[in-house]
Q: What sequence folds into this?
């Protein structure tokens, strides 16, 4: 029949034999299958016999417990109409019994399509798999043998499958890493081009309208002098975020340093003594200098009051400094928080008791960089005798080192916990930090290129002759500035000058920060007509509190330089990177605070070598690639890596305590959990 010629079915026959009984081929067929199947098999037998094919019974399959005869096979070859039929008979151990076997018949039929042969299913439980070609191979496996094969191969290859899955997973992870690195490289290469196009097509067109220019304001930094509204000034930040979104993801430029087992340690010890009800006297303090100079002076005064067992009156802030800020303590710091947070260490009052209001205090200026012995031996007798002392200066009145551990911890507790800014400054600071952190990290740059600093140091590199003369006149007008005739160029080569905005831009670019980086200026008004332009040439996304906040937001702080400095302090403290170009009081205070809060990345340029490299670059003696590699080599370990503060030859030459509170307020914690006093 046509269907029989087009279709070949393969049959599996389970054959069970024992060593004591052998059945004939026909007998096994008639005893093993139903009538329907027996009829089909007889039909096959009849057709094959009519073609002259002889049948011989298979050799009986005996079970054998030896490992060498766990399965047997036999091959028979017959000829059908000059066509070869290879019949292979395989026997596997039965999965449930060692004395029973299942048979597999492998039939290889050549050119069977033209043969009048019916191969039918010999058992209803068998499963057939078929493939057709000029050479048709058919294999039929019984259910019992198939189960055995599954169990055998599963047991042998389970571990291999698990290993294969793990290797596949690792391969997928590696491919993902490679893809992400490729994406970052592509984004970095495209960022500068994108920034240039964006600036040319959007920002330049937007802010180059007639009458629009960014100039330095007369009181508090640069701001937009155009008719743009305050809201538009604030939105400038969000316009520029598209520039800095792709090129600021390098962890080596932004991440904090690993502080290991170091941790804060300002809590009182087990032997801590609380202040008693009896006081040796009262201390009035007049702090001097700018905000951060007064801040560290207040910390020293609290520690001195602890040494003397004295009651401290809320300090007076300096109103006669260069900035002439009339703010009082309560205008900048939270007075109640200050008193409450230190109640277990020092007694603090807002004013003298009524009984001492008319007492004339003893005016005294403590010796700078003094140790605890000085106050106990020379100041304490005066306090007990006069009851009220008035300290005219508060800055640097305690040594950096060789003080009791409890005193050092108290200085840090005052600086980092007790001196909290008032709520309006805190809230505005948090708002501006949030704006700066939108979509990308930012650098807080303490440029210190201000008129008072340049006049005091005598530095005028990069300024015009008229600007240099203006600085000199100011230096002669300030009487308490002792040094009048200064060689500014020589001082610059000796690292005695702040970096210029142009030098700072070259430095940041050489370190690796892309031109799209957002930079917040932590300073007041920069001196020089072209100062800001030279910085923006390298980093166009430059901001200050004047351009970042609206006029309404800054209104309560206008005209109060110390309050604006407090705002800048918060933004610098929370920045991703802090860079300072001169070792001023604010640079020291912010650096130490960032170390205390987990060693946030803080970069201090090597001015001595940097200015030499800049001069060689601009004179054509070295290429940019040489300049870049040298700058990176010099500053590899100048990014705020944890290191101990070491005593120096003199207090003025050694590292300042508030610039690096380790040891003293940062301690090493051993794995046992004990704190080691350093």
A:
């Amino acid at each position: 029949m046509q269907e029989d010629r087009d279709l070949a079915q393969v049959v599996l026959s389970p054959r069970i034999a024992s060593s004591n009984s052998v059945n004939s081929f026909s007998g096994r067929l008639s005893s093993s299958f139903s009538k329907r199947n027996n009829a089909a098999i007889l039909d096959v037998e009849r057709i094959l016999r009519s073609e002259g094919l002889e049948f011989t019974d298979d050799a009986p399959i005996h079970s054998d417990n030896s490992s060498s005869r766990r399965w047997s096979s036999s091959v028979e070859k017959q000829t059908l109409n000059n066509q070869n039929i290879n019949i292979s008979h395989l026997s596997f151990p039965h999965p449930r019994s060692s004395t029973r076997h299942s048979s597999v018949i492998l039939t290889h039929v050549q050119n069977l399509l033209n043969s009048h042969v019916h191969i039918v299913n010999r058992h209803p439980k068998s499963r057939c798999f078929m493939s057709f070609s000029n050479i048709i191979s058919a294999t039929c496996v019984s259910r019992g043998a198939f189960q055995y094969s599954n169990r055998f191969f599963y047991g042998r290859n389970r571990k291999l499958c698990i290993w294969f899955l793990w290797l596949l997973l690792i391969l997928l992870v590696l491919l993902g890493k490679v893809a992400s690195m490729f994406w970052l490289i592509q984004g970095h290469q495209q960022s500068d081009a994108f920034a240039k196009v964006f600036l040319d097509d959007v920002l330049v067109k937007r802010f180059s309208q007639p009458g629009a220019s960014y100039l330095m304001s007369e009181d508090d930094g640069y701001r937009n002098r155009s008719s743009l509204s305050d809201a538009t000034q604030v939105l400038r930040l969000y316009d520029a975020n598209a520039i800095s979104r792709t090129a600021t993801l390098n962890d080596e430029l932004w991440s904090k340093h690993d502080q290991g087992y170091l941790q804060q340690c300002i809590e009182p010890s087990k032997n801590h003594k609380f202040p008693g009800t009896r006081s040796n006297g009262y201390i009035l303090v007049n702090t001097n200098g700018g905000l951060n100079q007064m801040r560290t002076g207040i910390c020293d005064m609290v520690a001195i009051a602890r040494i003397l067992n004295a009651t401290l009156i809320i300090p007076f802030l300096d109103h006669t400094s260069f900035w002439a800020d009339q703010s009082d303590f309560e205008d900048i710091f939270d007075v109640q928080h200050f008193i409450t947070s230190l109640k277990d260490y020092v007694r603090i009052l807002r004013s003298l008791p009524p009984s001492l209001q008319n007492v004339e205090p003893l005016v005294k200026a403590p010796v700078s960089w003094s140790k605890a012995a000085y106050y106990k031996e020379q100041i304490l007798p005066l306090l007990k005798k006069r009851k009220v002392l008035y300290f005219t200066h508060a800055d640097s009145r305690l040594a950096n080192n060789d003080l009791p551990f409890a005193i050092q911890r108290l200085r840090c507790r005052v600086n980092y916990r007790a001196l909290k800014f008032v709520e309006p400054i805190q809230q505005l600071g948090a708002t501006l930090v949030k704006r700066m952190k939108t979509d990308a990290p930012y650098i807080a740059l303490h440029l210190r290129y201000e008129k008072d600093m340049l006049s005091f140091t005598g530095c005028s590199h990069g300024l015009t002759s008229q600007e240099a003369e203006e600085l000199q006149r100011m230096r002669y007008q300030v009487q308490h500035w002792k040094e009048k005739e200064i060689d500014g160029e020589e001082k610059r080569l000796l690292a005695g000058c702040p970096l210029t905005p142009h030098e700072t831009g070259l430095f940041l670019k050489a370190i690796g920060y892309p031109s799209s980086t957002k930079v917040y200026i932590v300073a007041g008004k920069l001196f020089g007509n072209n100062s800001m332009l030279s910085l923006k040439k390298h980093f166009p996304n430059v901001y200050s509190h004047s351009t970042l906040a609206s006029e309404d937001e800054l209104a309560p702080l206008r005209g109060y330089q110390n309050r604006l400095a407090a705002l800048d302090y918060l933004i610098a403290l929370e920045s991703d990177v802090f860079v300072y170009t001169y070792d001023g009081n604010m640079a020291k205070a912010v650096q130490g605070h960032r170390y205390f809060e987990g060693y946030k990345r803080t970069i201090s340029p090597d001015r001595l070598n940097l200015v030499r490299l800049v001069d060689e670059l601009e004179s054509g003696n070295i290429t940019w690639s040489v300049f870049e590699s040298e700058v990176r080599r010099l500053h590899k370990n100048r990014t705020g890596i944890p290191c101990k503060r070491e005593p120096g030859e003199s207090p003025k030459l050694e590292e300042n305590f508030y610039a690096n509170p380790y040891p003293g307020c940062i301690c090493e914690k051993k794995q046992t959990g004990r704190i080691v006093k350093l």
